[in-house]
């Protein structure tokens, strides 16, 4: 009837999902994909009415607790947080991490969910956190389609699970196709289990337990899942269960038909091997249930589904019609109050006669009416404006809330604890400031852990964790392989299960390898569950000034544009970084903290309260007060700009230098606009490409903060060149902004204002 926009279903996978559900216990986690509705029904975490509510995009949380109508059908997730945004007792419920559409995108997170069980089992300091784990006995169940096993994320996660030896039970639903593309285009040897046979564990080598089973054979499925669960749960051995000979009787989705690409022979085979048909045969032949009894069960099931569909549609339409009724009532009143009565009547009639009207129909009718009323003053206009204001508020809650945490643990609600210094405060290398901060965090909270390339034994390439593995143990500070995507997934899964991971990506340049997982999964987690799940992961990295195309990146614009939902923190030195780590470890938001790559050996005075002091997010710091020009920057550019400001002072130009400190959030109190009001000139300086982060800062200050009103000169950006940085000191100098460029830019701005006082430098 066209009531649903789009449908994608798990038909043909029912028996395998029921068998999996039989061994899924409270405390376990699922990380699956959009064909698992039978599994969710079977574990009692999805009703048929909720399934249809999601199909209709019902924005009510009771109707669709998985996504509140924010995702298309087939995206499942349980609510692991209570109404205050705090973790529920996860060991008492059956948990499903929130699904995403990108195929294989669930695999990095799956690794982390399983990794958490290893930590909870093997770290005695975590054994009393029984809300999150019972001695690490929980399995992470993953599901993926056969075609998606071609994705790099799948291979990376499988390899990492084999290395880590974690309880990860991965089911591959193999129906022989990936949309219309048959198996021979996807997989070497035409079988993922044959292809991965080298992962099979032996008596002398760790690895996977690999099993194959036909998806239409219920007794074999039960036997396979029971064996897989026992191995996974008791021994913490990862298991790969290849479920073959599945069908997909409705094709990929409602947007296409499988008859277009399957042969008559294949279609006939699928009709004969449909798992529901095979289950019926088994029940009749082996369980001795009469066919008439099964007919009655099927009739009852169809009737129950039909009734659930009707209830879901009724609930959805009644929710929408409340607004529609309010607006039509106001429009009816307006017909007698407005000189545009006839046009209003047409609007009202159009709204009331629209078949399956949605909220946008009501909103459009209200706004069209207000255009007619723009030169009028009457009660209906006042009422309609009041409705519109309330509706926009409500719709923000329905469609735009919970990008970040709204709990009392939110990063922007953390107590500010100033850094304390005394005559005994040591002056040390910047790396030692971080080392002391991390040591304090690890000592304070057994849930804190850190991992990444070279983080463990040598304490990271810049020594921020030097000696901390020896002190706190390999489970707390550990190395990983070169696998940025699953380093992030390892962190997401661990954070979903109550741990406080710090996942390191060695250089900012390598974020590109992890960007899909960060953007598709972590950044939108709170949003796509409307506050139902959280993963307070801290991603540590380093960037800005150094040397070379792949070791001196400042691709901040890339992060700003793709990671809304994750705070972006850009400290200018290691003391500021330490304060931000302390803040984020107290919060329940995720964050990227980008340390200055050339700052680890610069001297800093270490605070006496290195493990306690915090720095607020979204609060710029004025590094130098001035009256002529405001310069806004962050990170390593702070030192460059400050050097230029000193030289400009000698030339009679007073610069106010402001360190933004965090880019998401950005200057929540509009401190920069206050500075521009004083100086009437503004420059935004950073190391990103033209149009990158400097343009973002300009938009925030001029448009959001309305600082354009105070300008007496064109706003200017200072950026790097359009290419990546060339090698060596000269390459850095001629690629990225330097003190001379900053000096010349500011001076030229003042020359335009007063050429006599500031004559041209080079003409």
From TrEMBL:
Entry keyword Oxidoreductase: yes
Names of required cofactors: thiamine diphosphate
Signal peptide: none
Pfam families: E1_dh, Transket_pyr, Transketolase_C
Gene source species: Dawidia soli
Keywords assigned: Oxidoreductase, Thiamine pyrophosphate
Transketolase-like pyrimidine-binding domain location: 428-602
Name of the protein this chain belongs to: Transketolase
The keyword Oxidoreductase is annotated on this UniProt entry: yes
A GO MF label: oxidoreductase activity, acting on the aldehyde or oxo group of donors, disulfide as acceptor
């Amino acid at each position: 009837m066209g009531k649903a926009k789009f449908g994608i279903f798990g038909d043909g996978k029912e028996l395998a999902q029921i068998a999996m559900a039989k061994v899924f216990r409270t405390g376990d986690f699922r990380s699956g994909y959009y064909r698992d509705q039978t599994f969710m029904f079977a574990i009692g975490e999805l009703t048929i009415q909720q399934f249809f509510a999601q199909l209709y995009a019902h924005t009510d949380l009771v109707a669709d607790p998985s996504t509140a109508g924010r995702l298309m059908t087939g995206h499942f997730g349980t609510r692991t947080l209570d109404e205050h945004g705090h973790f529920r007792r996860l060991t008492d419920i059956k948990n499903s991490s929130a699904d995403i559409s990108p195929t294989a995108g669930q695999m990095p997170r799956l690794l982390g969910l399983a990794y958490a069980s290893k930590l909870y089992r093997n770290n005695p300091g975590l054994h009393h956190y029984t809300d999150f784990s019972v001695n690490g006995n929980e399995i992470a169940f993953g599901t993926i389609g056969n075609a998606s096993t071609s994705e790099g994320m799948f291979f990376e996660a499988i390899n990492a699970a084999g290395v880590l030896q974690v309880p990860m039970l991965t089911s591959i639903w193999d129906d022989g196709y990936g949309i219309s593309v048959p198996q021979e285009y996807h997989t070497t040897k035409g079988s993922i289990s044959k292809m991965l046979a080298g992962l099979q564990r032996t008596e002398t080598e760790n690895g996977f337990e690999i099993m194959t089973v036909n998806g239409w054979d219920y007794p074999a499925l039960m036997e396979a899942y029971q064996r897989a669960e026992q191995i996974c749960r008791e021994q913490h051995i990862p298991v790969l269960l290849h479920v073959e000979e599945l069908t997909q009787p409705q094709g990929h989705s409602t947007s296409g038909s499988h008859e277009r690409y399957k042969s008559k022979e294949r279609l006939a085979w699928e009709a004969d091997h449909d798992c529901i048909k095979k289950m019926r045969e088994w029940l009749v032949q082996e369980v001795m249930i009469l066919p008439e009894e099964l007919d009655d069960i099927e009739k009852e099931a169809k009737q129950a589904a039909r009734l659930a569909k009707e209830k879901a549609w009724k609930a959805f339409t009644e929710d929408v019609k409340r607004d529609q009724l309010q607006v039509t009532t106001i429009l009816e009143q307006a017909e007698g109050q407005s000189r545009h009565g006839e046009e209003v009547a047409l609007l009202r009639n159009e709204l009331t006669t629209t078949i399956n009207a949605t909220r946008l129909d009501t909103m459009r009718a209200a706004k069209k009416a207000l255009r007619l009323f723009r030169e009028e003053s009457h009660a209906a206009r006042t009422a309609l404006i009041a409705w519109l204001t309330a509706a926009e508020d409500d719709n923000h809650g329905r469609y735009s809330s919970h990008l970040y945490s709204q709990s009392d643990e939110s990063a922007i609600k953390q107590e500010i604890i100033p850094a304390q210094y005394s005559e005994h405060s040591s002056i040390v290398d910047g790396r030692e400031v971080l080392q002391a901060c991390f040591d304090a965090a690890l000592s304070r909270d057994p849930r804190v852990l850190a991992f990444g390339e070279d983080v463990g034994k040598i304490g990271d390439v810049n020594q921020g964790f030097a000696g901390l593995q020896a002190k706190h143990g390999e489970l707390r500070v550990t190395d990983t392989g070169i696998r940025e995507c699953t380093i992030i997934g390892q962190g997401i899964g661990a954070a979903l299960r109550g741990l406080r991971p710090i996942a390191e990506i060695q250089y900012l340049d390598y974020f590109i390898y992890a960007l899909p997982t960060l953007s598709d999964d972590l950044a939108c987690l709170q949003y796509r569950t409307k506050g139902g799940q959280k993963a307070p992961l801290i991603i540590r990295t380093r960037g800005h000034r150094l040397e070379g195309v792949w070791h001196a990146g400042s691709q901040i614009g890339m992060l700003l544009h793709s990671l809304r939902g994750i705070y972006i923190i850009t400290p200018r030195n290691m003391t500021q970084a330490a304060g931000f780590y302390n803040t984020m470890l107290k919060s329940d938001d995720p964050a990227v903290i980008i340390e200055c790559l050339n700052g680890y050996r610069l001297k800093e005075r270490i605070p006496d309260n290195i493990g306690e002091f915090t720095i607020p997010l979204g609060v710029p710091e004025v590094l130098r007060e001035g009256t002529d020009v405001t310069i806004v920057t962050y990170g390593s550019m702070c030192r460059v700009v400050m050097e230029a400001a000193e030289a400009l002072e000698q030339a009679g130009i007073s610069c106010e230098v402001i360190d933004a400190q965090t880019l998401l959030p950005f200057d929540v109190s509009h401190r920069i606009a206050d500075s521009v009001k004083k100086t009437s000139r503004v420059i935004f300086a950073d190391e990103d490409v033209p149009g990158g982060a400097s343009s973002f800062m300009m938009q925030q200050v001029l448009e959001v903060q309305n600082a354009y009103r105070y300008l007496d000169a064109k706003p200017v950006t200072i950026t790097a060149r359009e290419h990546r940085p060339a090698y060596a000191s000269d390459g850095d100098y001629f690629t990225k902004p330097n003190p001379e460029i900053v000096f010349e830019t500011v001076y030229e701005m003042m020359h335009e204002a007063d050429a006599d006082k500031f004559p041209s430098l080079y003409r």
